[in-house]
Design brief:
The complex is a heterodimer of chains A (413) and B (410).
Chain A: E1 5-13, H1 20-29, E2 35-36, E3 49-50, H2 64-67, H3 72-88, E4 100-106, H4 111-124, H5 133-137, H6 141-150, E5 156-160, H7 165-178, E6 184-191, H8 196-204, E7 233-241, H9 242-247, E8 254-263, H10 276-289, E9 296-300, H11 307-321, E10 329-331, H12 334-337, H13 344-358, E11 360-361, E12 384-385, E13 390-397, E14 401-409
Parallel strand pairs in A: 4-5, 4-6, 9-10, 9-13
Antiparallel strand pairs in A: 1-7, 1-8, 2-3, 6-7, 8-14, 11-12, 13-14
Helix pairs in contact in A: 3-6, 7-13, 10-11
Chain B: E1 5-14, E2 17-18, H1 20-29, E3 35-36, E4 49-50, H2 64-68, H3 72-88, E5 99-104, H4 110-122, H5 131-135, H6 139-148, E6 154-158, H7 163-176, E7 182-189, H8 194-202, E8 231-239, H9 240-245, E9 252-261, H10 274-287, E10 294-298, H11 305-319, E11 328-329, H12 332-335, H13 342-356, E12 358-359, E13 382-383, E14 388-395, E15 399-406
The chains are: A alpha/beta (413), B alpha/beta (410).
């Protein structure tokens, strides 16, 4: 007895904009949100490039007293959740609060908050560490605070799976509704990795892209690609049981039909070269959705822009989709918003929902030189008007985590 | 119909022992695992006692190079997962794609972060490329999968001190809906770091009592906070038919999982423990049993003034007239509060209680508190007839989780 789950609200805070409209306009225009880092001193680095959230006012979303205790990442999550709830038109006063849950993940969590307090510990001693640190630094701080703000008293936790977090979280949230444990879940992912210490760590991994022009730095599937670019922000989806959404006359963006997660069980950093892990997640999502590969029209790929990822992901898509792979549109919107780590899967799930609803596929920008190892239709450089009935979004994370999810255009049935 | 899920293996690393049976026997014997801290310099810290895991041999499961690229919480997870898998006798290679891993951790690799923070101060470009992959809390699940070849559903759940319980509950549902035949699930935390101690002490959640013999005393009138413990508790959960077909020893059945949010306050329990009570009621409803059928509760029982009082209220609200007949004990009285690992370790304790039909005491309960008036199994372990037992976990942020385990009867 599985119940159907639909998407009735979206909230996006990304380097492309702080609402759905501005994100969609940038995606369709193929506009990059990547620039030179302004959030901290980057003089130690030759190519300090990232996707920063701009013109964001935290005070719009959180009381000043609480705000002082929070990491930037947590505020992104709260803001995106508020926007998504408003978009869905959910009035909590009319809901059974026990049947509304919050399941939102992050890859790293309150990076800067912890580091700032580590400095206090080192310089001023343990007795000066903030009494609010522990209760406000955990990856589940955001879900707890969103519950307090909204009154949502249903299932509540964070999921972490490195860069596959957003996908894994959204998929798990849909399962909670499907099995009958609640009617609505505020689901998604958030991240603010642009902090001095974490940036130093990512830089040391030698996986970040370099380029003279920041907007051209991330080049997924292109032969000259040389790494990923960090992005920050949050993506939140309101997932809702179909009959519940119908009963309140909600706008239905799309149906959430299946998800899968897996682990490569291979290496903590590198993806397995044969792509078995991400292929397995895609197959599991197809099984859960009870559809064949031939129905999928579009894949919002993980497509980070690293030489290894894009090659492995292409191979996995070919393995799973066989000859249908040549009919697929595959694009990496990270070419525009960067790699938003724990937020990526949720932001890209939201984009996939919009693609199904609107019949326009955003491009992979900065695509110029074909790579023989990456030979799919990546929707290069320009958005394409094309009906998409089923869209898939894939995510791959450090630690070997993979997730895939499938959404279906809402056709009123 | 829903598939049934059983427990076929358990691994436990705690202050009471670097292994399952060592920990369990110490609990039954009423051993105190709290001692002066040795892992970090404590001279300037307000708290100087904790539950540290005794020395263990990492080379059982990890070579030196691999081990160096993991934080201690991941070491603990891999060790406990290895013990649980051996206990279960599960042939992972036979079903690798359908065996997943969910290990909760509240904090992640704080020790690594503290070390790399010092490096960063001296020279940012010298920060380890492994900082991020060692710190992020999903690495316990990630590395455990890599080490043991678990290729199925995989992630970490975080709900503060309920993390381990939510990992087990989510793994249960994953098997139930047919996405896996077995799951390695539980919690891991390496909480004895200067930053963690300083931050918990600042929040006034820790006991200010530095006498290891009395610091952790859940439900006692003079309790004044919890004592940090580190460890990992991991179960092998398996679809019943799969376990039976291979002739596995079934330790218990995992019958139900209930979860709720207080939506009330970041650190304080909701009024009358309403949120915790709701999680227990959801679990009972999903198990299809009456409250009166529960024979034992392994409580969250942290030893903070608020938790123990409100947890007692919530238990009374749920169990009503049957409450006086239900023994309740806190494992934290002996191995401390292991945060994200607590739900995993205490689930394992509950499973072993069912296996052996014995329950452990709440240690250090000397002075009764009028607000805490249940049967906390003071004085010594007890032989009991256990059919259904409940393990509760409550976390900062208002997370409540309740697991019900049952004697397996085919």
């Amino acid at each position: 007895m599985t119940r159907r789950v639909v998407v009735t609200g979206l909230g996006l805070i990304t380097p492309l904009g702080n609402d759905v409209t501005s994100n969609w306009e940038a995606l369709v225009a193929g506009r990059s949100g990547i620039g030179t880092i302004t959030l901290f001193d980057t003089s130690a680095y030759e190519f300090p490039i990232a996707g920063e959230v701009r013109d964001f006012d935290p005070a719009e979303h959180v009381d000043a007293k609480i705000l002082r205790r929070l990491d930037r990442s947590t505020v992104f999550a709260i803001a995106a959740a508020q926007r998504a709830l408003a978009d869905a038109g959910i009035d909590m006063a009319k809901e059974d609060a026990r049947r509304v849950g919050v399941v939102i993940g992050t890859g790293i969590g309150s990076a800067q908050l912890i580091v700032e307090q580590a400095a206090v510990l080192a310089e001023k001693g343990p007795r000066r560490v903030s009494p609010f640190l522990i209760s406000h630094m955990l990856p589940d701080t955001a879900t707890g605070l969103i519950a307090i703000q909204t009154g949502a008293r249903g299932p509540n936790f964070a999921v972490t799976a490195a860069c596959a977090t957003g996908g894994a979280t959204t998929g798990e949230a849909a399962e909670i509704i499907a099995r009958g444990d609640c009617e609505v879940i505020i689901a998604g992912g958030y991240e603010a990795p642009l902090t001095p210490v974490y940036y130093a760590g990512f830089n040391a991994m030698k996986a970040l892209a370099t380029a003279e022009d920041p907007t051209k730095a991330v080049r997924p599937f292109d032969a000259t690609r040389n790494g990923f670019i960090l992005g920050e922000g949050a993506g939140v989806l309101i997932l809702e049981e179909l009959e519940h959404a119908r009963a309140r006359g909600a706008h239905i963006y799309a149906e959430f039909v299946g998800a899968g997660t897996s682990n490569d069980a291979y290496d903590m950093v590198a993806a397995a070269e044969d792509g078995h892990g991400i292929a397995q997640a895609m197959r599991d999502a197809l099984t859960r959705a009870a559809v064949g590969v031939e129905v999928i029209d579009y894949i919002n790929a993980h497509g980070t822009g690293t030489p290894l990822n894009d090659r492995v992901e292409t191979k996995a898509i070919r393995d799973v989709f066989a000859e249908h792979a040549d009919s697929l549109m595959v694009s990496s919107t990270k070419s525009m918003h960067g790699h938003m780590m724990g937020a990526a899967g949720a932001v890209e799930a939201a984009i996939t929902v919009l693609v199904c609803e609107r019949g326009i596929v955003p491009p992979t920008i900065n695509y110029a030189s074909p790579d023989p190892a990456c030979d799919l239709d990546y929707v290069p450089n320009e958005a394409r008007r094309s009906a998409v009935r089923y869209g898939m979004s894939t995510s791959v994370g450090l630690g070997g985590h993979n997730s895939a999810l499938i959404v279906k255009r809402w056709e009123g049935d | 119909m829903d598939r049934r899920v059983v427990v076929t293996g358990a691994g436990m690393f705690s202050a009471l022992g670097a292994g399952r049976e060592a920990t369990w026997q110490a609990l039954l014997a009423g051993t105190n695992g709290i001692r002066p801290i040795t892992r970090v310099e404590t001279e300037d810290l307000p708290t100087r006692v904790a539950g540290e895991v005794p020395e263990f041999d990492l080379s059982t499961y990890l070579d030196r190079k691999e081990a160096k690229r993991m934080d201690r919480f991941t070491h603990l997870a891999v060790m406990a997962a290895g013990e649980a898998l051996e206990h279960s006798g599960l042939d992972v290679a036979a079903d690798a794609d359908e065996i997943g891993c969910m290990i909760g951790s509240g904090i992640g690799g704080m020790e690594t972060l503290e070390q790399e923070f010092k490096v960063f101060f001296e020279k940012p470009t010298r920060v380890s490329p492994f900082l991020v992959p060692m710190f992020i809390p999903d690495m316990a699940a990630g590395q455990t999968s890599i080490r043991f070849g678990l290729r199925g559903p995989n992630f970490n759940t975080v709900s503060a001190c309920a993390s381990g319980a939510d990992a087990i509950g989510t793994a249960l549902e994953t098997i139930r809906r047919g996405d896996a035949v077995a799951m390695v699930a539980g919690g891991a935390e390496a909480s004895v770091t200067r930053m963690t101690i300083a931050a918990f002490a600042a929040s006034r959640a820790l006991s200010r009592n530095n006498d290891p013999e009395t610091a952790s005393r859940p439900f006692d009138l003079n309790r004044d906070g919890f004592v940090l413990g580190e460890g990992a508790g991991i179960l092998v959960l398996e679809e019943r038919g799969h376990a039976e077909a291979r002739g596995a020893t079934i330790l218990a059945e995992l019958t139900a999982y209930g979860q709720s949010a207080d939506a009330f306050h970041v650190t304080q329990p909701s009024e009358n423990g309403e949120g915790a009570a709701r999680a227990m009621r959801i679990a009972l409803k999903k198990a299809g049993i009456d409250a009166a059928e529960i024979d034992y509760v392994n409580a969250h029982g942290t030893s903070t003034p608020l938790n123990d009082k409100f947890e007692t209220l919530s238990l009374k609200a749920v169990f009503g007239e049957s409450m006086p007949g239900i023994p309740v004990s806190s494992s934290k009285s002996m191995f401390g509060h292991t945060l994200g690992a607590a739900g995993g370790l205490e689930a394992a304790v509950t499973v072993l209680s069912i296996r052996d039909q014995r329950i452990h005491q709440t240690l250090h309960l000397l002075t009764p508190d009028p607000d805490c008036d249940l049967d906390y199994v003071a004085g010594g372990p007890r032989d009991v007839s256990l059919k259904h037992a409940m393990s509760n976990s409550l976390g900062f942020g208002g997370h409540n989780s309740s697991l019900i385990f049952s004697r397996y009867e085919g």
